[in-house]
Amino acid sequence: MDRLFYVGVSAALFAAFAFSLNFVVPFIIGDYSTFDFALIRHVVSGLVGLYILFSEKRVMRHLTLRNCLQAIWLAFIGYVGYFLTVTGAAVFAGPVIAPAFLGLVPIVLMVIGNQRQGSLPWRSLMVPLALVLVGLILVNGTAFTAEGLNSVESLWVGVPLALAAVGLWVWFALANQAALAARPEMPSAVWSALILVGGGVLMLAFYPVGAAMDLFQLPVLGFDWSAAGNLYVWGASFALLATVGGVWAWNIASRSLPVALAAQLIVSETAFGVIGGLIVHARWPTPIEVAGVVVLIAGVVLSVRIFSARQFAPGKTLLAQE
């Protein structure tokens, strides 16, 4: 058995859980804006990234201008940009409809990834892909009913933001794996740290502009602990779990698995996101939603088994060279 394969699977599932936490952010920060939360979250993550860089041995040889600029660009696409679009989608389209649209990510990513890498014959992917599609339909079937639309502020704003989040995440996943493949000597921890620092730098650079546009509430509500303590606690907690943990786990998955399989695993983000939405609404899932989650899990498990059989077949390897 290939230990690296199962490490990659576990890392991808953890990354999916970590990223799904974005859906509940707007509902736990009180009067502060998502921009305030993003500032705290990415600055704390950037500080963690700096600590990792300073604690790694022989790190300076990896801190080239090209590597730093690439990491900042990836941070802009996949973390700062994705976070703002997905939380904006949750604000305007509600915590159930937003993850429904994000369900497009694994489908698009799987098709593009397998087209580029040729990891498996398409006929092998049809059944797990069909299960994922059916599961997504069942899980999100209530999102567009009258009950599901009760929390919607503006579909005209929320849906484009959700689609933008889909595009950013697909773009990031492909670009990040290509960047890692081009840097086989780069430790995953160092590359993750560079992206984290890039996200922190971007948010600090954006703060003066955002404050002038009244996007931040910190200057109005106050920076002191008595006013913003809840924001600091949630921001630091999500920084460690969702951002640091998510970046680290996804980079491990990107190195261990082909894009097509990672895409199938990231579908669990939708299930996690919908569960978070149900918790926000304080209700139990309907039988259809439960069936959808079960079918989704079945699709993911089948994908892992198919790719696992391919991985452990004599003379076969999943990570086809591009």
From TrEMBL:
InterPro entries: EmrE-like (IPR037185). It comes from the Bacteria. The chain crosses the membrane at residues 7-29, 35-54, 66-84, 90-113, 125-143, 155-176, 188-211, 231-250, 257-282, 288-307. Keywords: Membrane, Transmembrane, Transmembrane helix. This is Transmembrane protein.
